[in-house]
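Sequence, please.
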């Protein structure tokens, strides 16, 4: 299949080389909508070679291109910009290629292996709205990278150890009275999260009491609080694998994993491999020893190991505590090395919030100083916070928006709004439930993924389910509308076989041009790790089709060839919408 961008670039370069002996630094982009044309050439880089004005150079180049290229119908010049108009027959040929290409938009195998880590939850609380952004972003980027022909390994690193885990365990031990998911009727992750909040409540009460009764400062009281000391002792017992503590840890983590699996399934995300911090936190110690021998690291008097990055504009970074225990950086160094070696990775992507920007900057730099050139192929896909109209969320205080609750609310709201608008009229209860789930999750996913990951975003559930505007339900409804048209055509035995014989209207050319951009859109989204690029494309395609459908009849068109063309065009728009939305992890209904 012809690559349109490469074809136009080749045509322009050939004409420029013949006229001026150069085509260096030529820029070509789509012509802006207010001007006539399909592609615009910036001729300013040619002026030194042409020794003519921008207008004269553009005119000369345009005349040469039209004379030598049958596919270019005409041109116009606006100052130093050459606008090329492509023949409609060129777009007819491209449309025939699109329709004949089974995996349209998908790239051939690249031979590259990419690992992407996302989710990375703590086992002391259920997943919340922030985790939803992380999971949806990671899963979508993985899907987009697969569409670009890469071998993708999706992994999750579960933070299943540490003081925060012990807080939930201790609170359950002290105040749980043997409560289990079965006896409470709660999902396991919710139950454990309940005791994390319970710990914080008792901890604050103890701190307040110590400050009042003993006159301690808040910092002193926090260190003295009996419940915190017990949690720290529990962590020491866990690290020593004391049987009772270790068994409790395994039991409560088991509850959490069962709960997580339910949420992941509801979100529609999965993993190829799950790592656990309890199994990886000791990795990296040998790397630290290696770094000490090489003189990359240094040891302080308390026996702790550090690296000095002040010459790189950073600070000194701890790599190993004085007692020999590892820190997050130690673990991440070892995990990165083992992953690259075990999987022969070309790239490693970490989907982690922007509060960890510094951590990943240091990780790459330390690995580079240790001599691992593949450190340049580590990417931190940083994303901003998700905020609500009410403000920020706090796990310890139990004010987070729970992922399970949000998903259920989105599905319920989708059901309610769809019914109000008559979208579920005449639909069976089973289909209504399936459509509501599809629309609710589609609204949630699209609303989150359409935003550039780097931006902090404000999530408004009801706004996301609007059936008009830049929303998932608008795109889903467009797909369902096209499916309805195609069903009616099939029922009426209307064929699409003669679609190539009809002359294209300008609006049809515009739709075909947009369809032709899909492979390049998938490529750009993969290069930038940006689902928002796919979301913007899907919305533009749905919006453009709706405008076309409003102005031009399909089923009532009397000319057989024109009607066949329009049906085929509708069919391909639906196929590309379906493909684009699948890259966002969003299903589209056939009936609404």
């Amino acid at each position: 299949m012809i690559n349109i961008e490469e074809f136009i670039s080749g045509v322009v370069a050939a004409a420029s080389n013949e006229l001026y002996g150069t085509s260096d630094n030529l820029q070509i982009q789509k012509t802006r909508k207010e001007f006539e044309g399909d592609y615009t050439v910036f001729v300013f880089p040619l002026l030194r070679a042409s020794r003519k004005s921008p207008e004269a150079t553009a005119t000369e180049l345009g005349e040469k291109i039209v004379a030598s290229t049958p596919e270019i119908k005409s041109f116009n010049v606006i100052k130093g910009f050459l606008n090329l108009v492509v023949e409609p027959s060129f777009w007819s040929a491209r449309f025939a290629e699109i329709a004949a290409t089974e995996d349209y938009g998908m790239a051939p195998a690249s031979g590259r292996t990419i690992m992407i880590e996302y989710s990375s939850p703590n086992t002391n609380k259920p997943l919340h709205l922030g985790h939803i952004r992380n999971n949806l972003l990671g899963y979508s980027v993985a899907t987009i990278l697969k569409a670009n022909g890469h071998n993708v390994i999706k992994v999750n690193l579960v933070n299943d150890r540490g003081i925060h885990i012990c807080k939930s365990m201790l609170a359950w031990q002290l105040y749980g009275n043997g409560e289990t998911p079965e006896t409470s009727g709660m999902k396991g992750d919710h139950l454990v999260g309940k005791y994390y909040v319970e710990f914080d409540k008792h901890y604050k009460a103890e701190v307040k009491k110590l400050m009042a009764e003993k006159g301690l400062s808040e910092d002193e009281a926090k260190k003295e609080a009996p419940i915190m000391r017990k949690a720290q002792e529990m962590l020491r017992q866990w690290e020593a694998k004391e049987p009772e503590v270790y068994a409790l840890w395994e039991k409560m983590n088991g509850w959490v994993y069962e709960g997580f699996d339910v949420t992941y399934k509801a979100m529609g995300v999965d993993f190829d491999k799950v790592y656990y911090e309890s199994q990886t936190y000791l990795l990296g110690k040998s790397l630290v020893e290696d770094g000490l021998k090489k003189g990359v690291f240094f040891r302080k008097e308390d026996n702790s190991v550090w690296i000095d990055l002040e010459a790189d504009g950073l600070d000194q970074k701890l790599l190993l505590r004085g007692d020999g225990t590892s820190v997050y950086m130690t673990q991440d160094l070892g995990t990165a090395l083992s992953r690259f070696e075990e999987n022969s990775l070309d790239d490693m992507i970490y989907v982690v919030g922007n509060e960890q920007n510094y951590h990943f900057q240091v990780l790459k730099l330390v690995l580079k100083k240790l001599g691992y050139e593949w450190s340049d192929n580590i990417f931190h896909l940083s994303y901003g916070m998700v905020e609500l109209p009410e403000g920020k969320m706090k796990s310890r205080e139990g004010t987070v928006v729970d992922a399970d609750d949000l998903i259920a609310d989105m599905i319920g709201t989708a059901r309610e709004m769809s019914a109000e608008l008559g979208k579920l009229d005449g639909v069976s209860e089973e289909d209504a439930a399936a459509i509501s789930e599809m629309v609710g999750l589609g609204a949630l996913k699209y609303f989150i993924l359409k935003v550039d990951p780097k931006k902090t975003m404000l999530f408004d559930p009801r706004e996301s389910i609007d059936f008009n505007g830049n929303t998932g339900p608008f795109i889903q409804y467009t797909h369902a509308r096209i499916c309805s048209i195609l069903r009616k055509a099939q029922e009426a035995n209307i064929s699409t076989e003669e679609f190539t014989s009809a002359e294209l209207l300008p609006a049809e050319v515009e739709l075909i041009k947009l369809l032709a951009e899909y492979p390049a859109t998938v490529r750009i989204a993969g290069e930038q790790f940006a689902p928002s690029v796919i979301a913007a494309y899907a919305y533009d395609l749905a919006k453009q089709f709706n405008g076309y459908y409003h102005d031009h009849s399909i089923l009532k068109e009397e000319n057989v060839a024109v009607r066949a063309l329009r049906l085929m065009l509708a069919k391909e728009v639906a196929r590309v919408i379906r493909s684009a939305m699948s890259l966002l992890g969003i299903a589209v209904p056939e009936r609404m």
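Residues 14 and 296 are 53 Å apart (CA to CA).
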